[in-house]
Amino acid sequence: MTFTLDRFDLDAFVAATLAEDLGDHGDITSRATIPADARFAGVMDSREDVIVAGLPIAEAFFRTLDADVGIEILADEGARVGAGGDLMRLTGLARAMLTAERSALNTVQHLTGIATMTRRYVDAIAGTGATLLDTRKTIPGLRVLEKYATRMGGATNHRMRLDDAAMIKDNHVAVAGSVGEAVRRAVAAGIERIIVEVDRIDQIAPALDAGATHLLLDNMANDTLRDAVALVDGRVPTEASGGVRLDTIRAIAETGVDFISVGRLTQSAPAADIGLDFSPD
């Protein structure tokens, strides 16, 4: 099946991941113990309730090592699958399946874990009007995949790269001298999207007056968030950020902010409990 993501080379990812796992001499265990023509049938299933992400990438690992492998994907990306639900069926060369197994499972477990945690946060703010955002707090080299997984969980991607928008934070302000001056410099540079982090109410007016197009309300108490939303009065989008947890996100959403960004979606999501069982075919 075709699987494409902007700025993601699936073939290169699969090749690099397999090369990392194969080392210099390949899967010496499977080669020593399993005949070259032996065939397996396999089923990948979930041992817990999950939101699925990454099955087409798993398929690519198996097809790279056995072009004739039979694969049936049983769950759509972003679908909810209960404990015990089957995700994929495979039939093909036993050696190839065993060699690709760990790379395929690692990828699906990681991305499905992110998607599953993300959906819990999305469900927690349902009906409030707030939108969940991810962050750039991703594992180096995996940002495109991890942000894909948050989308499968129902979140919206925040900046993918530093050049997507300016984001003026406390260190930029410290060098520029003030929030207003930092924003003015970004405006003068011709930047259209200017996100400004503020952690005090008195920073809001200078940021807006200078040309901020989005305010990131950092680590504000809920009462302060309400005051900030009222002061902004819809002139630009507002985003709550900082220390957001599953047990606090709904109250934050109910302050009236437009967005809530959560770093732990990609920083702290546990791997999903997904297994792959084989039997002789």
UniProtKB/TrEMBL annotation:
Catalytic activity: nicotinate beta-D-ribonucleotide + CO2 + diphosphate = quinolinate + 5-phospho-alpha-D-ribose 1-diphosphate + 2 H(+)
Keyword annotations: Glycosyltransferase, Pyridine nucleotide biosynthesis, Transferase
Cellular-component GO terms for this entry: cytoplasm
Gene3D superfamilies: Aldolase class I, Quinolinate phosphoribosyl transferase, N-terminal domain
Presence of keyword Glycosyltransferase: yes
Pathway(s) served: Cofactor biosynthesis; NAD(+) biosynthesis; nicotinate D-ribonucleotide from quinolinate: step 1/1
Coiled coil: none
The keyword Nucleotidyltransferase is annotated on this UniProt entry: no
Domain of life of the source: Bacteria
Domain Quinolinate phosphoribosyl transferase N-terminal per the UniProt entry, residue ranges: 27-111
EC number: 2.4.2.19
UniProt GO BP: NAD+ biosynthetic process; quinolinate catabolic process
GO molecular function, one term: nicotinate-nucleotide diphosphorylase (carboxylating) activity
Domain Quinolinate phosphoribosyl transferase C-terminal per the UniProt entry, residue ranges: 114-277
Job of this protein: Involved in the catabolism of quinolinic acid (QA).
Similarity-based family: Belongs to the NadC/ModD family.
Subunit structure: Hexamer formed by 3 homodimers.
Protein name per Swiss-Prot or TrEMBL: Probable nicotinate-nucleotide pyrophosphorylase [carboxylating]
Taxonomic lineage: Bacteria, Pseudomonadati, Pseudomonadota, Alphaproteobacteria, Sphingomonadales
UniProt gene name: nadC
